[in-house]
Amino acid sequence: MAFDTMIAEWLINPASHNLGLKNLAWARLGVEMKPITDLIGKGKAQITMAGVPIAQATPYACADVDMTYRLVKVLEPELHEKKLWLLFTEVEMPLVPVLSAMEMRGVALDVEFLREMSRQLHERLMALEREIHELVGYPFNIGSTQQLSDALFIKLGLSAQGVPKTKSGHYSTSASVLERLRGQHPVIDLILEHRELAKLKSTYVDALPKLVNKRTGRVHTSFNQTGTVTGRLSSSDPNLQNIPIRTELGRQVRRAFIAAPGHLLLSADYSQVELRILAHISQDEGLLAAFKRGEDIHASTAATVLGVPIEKVTREMRRLAKTINFGITYGMSGYGLAQRTGLSQEEADRFIKNYFAKYPRVKKYVEETKRKAREQGYVETLLGRRRYFPELASDSKAHYSVKAAAERMAINAPIQGSAADIIKIAMINLHRALKERGLASSMTLQVHDELVLEVPEGELEAVKPLVKSTMEGAFELDAPLKVDMKVGRNWLEMEPVEA
DNA sequence: GCGGTGGGCGCG
DNA sequence: AAAGCGCGCCCACCGC
Q1: Nearest residue for C2, CA–C1'
Q2: pLDDT average, residue stretch A191-204
């Protein structure tokens, strides 16, 4: 179907169920990571499409390759000057048709399953609501944080000791606060369960079926190519990058994402991609060696930092190491580590100090990155994608906390952004490889470090090695990329497979 | 009825 | 003084 047809349908009735490819805002130029519309707004280019001045048109009106390239004529010198030309021509533009194909393909949804799940959630929610009102002593809206706060801290008189207040002045009722209140009153457990179920029901179980396209019978997300500051994609309407997996009940939602008859879902995800990138960029010997030996990286970190043999690492030690391995790439402090692990602040500080002593080049990466952000004004990914930090300039009057936050973003941006670069290359190459071989398999979802493909059963054996080698070969890291794959009839019940 | 904001929470 | 990055969506609440 042609784009103009879809746009016409959408213009006639914007609320209609059409295939509205919101990826039509598809011109990520990579220039300072700003959407094309921002640049146009500054009057750098006065371009019209079908007689409409783009500056006043919605981003959707940018859906014309011709227009995009005419606009680029104006921006080309800047792309060259900032060394973004190859990223633009070799990655972002070739990605556009790949994303369009994924959006068009969509994914099948078991609506009947979700309807049944909705009924069961409704029943349980009603029971919980009754019990909660009973225990509190009067009926109120459990979904209102203000009313809930009053119920807990005024009516029931639970201790508000150390509970942070929100901007609007009432005590926070966040999950971390409720967890701490758990022993104080039996109602807390019920509220936590109510929260979890209400979230699942409203955000996924009830919302997803409404977005099934009447024509295709499938859900078609939009992959926004210009929606993040790091180079990642985002997904919306519906967001299929935040489907539950961490709790048993939540992950049941994944059962609703099914392969078409005669097909299978193949999920392929990069193992520890951000830590491998950190190892590559920092060139830290210990980290590189652990990956080259193919070790369980969290166990390896625990062994190294705590000074025990890797086979003596307990679950508890590994869990701590996992927290710090992730935290490092976000610029986490001792306070933050303590908050998340139950360690005292002193212990957490000491642990981080030890970590940096054992992985000195990681420490150096952190310091170098902060220096670059301050001195050159930006940091960059493996492919040269930039993120700017005006707050960190030496003449900046920004508050300390603002600068500290910017530093954490600067530490994370090259890592998260490089991972985005890599999976984008993989997507382009895989799309082409499948086409070249005349295979009917195609990507349907991207979840930052994971690709989901819908594969005709007969193609599975051919597609598995192709996916694995294409993803692993997307970029050569000194800590080599590793891809794990799973196959199943739906996104929940998947079995690990080898290529 | 609509749009914006805040609190909260799902994912990587 | 703040205290781990990046997203999008739900509901409540508020002002218009």
Answers
A1: A401
A2: 97
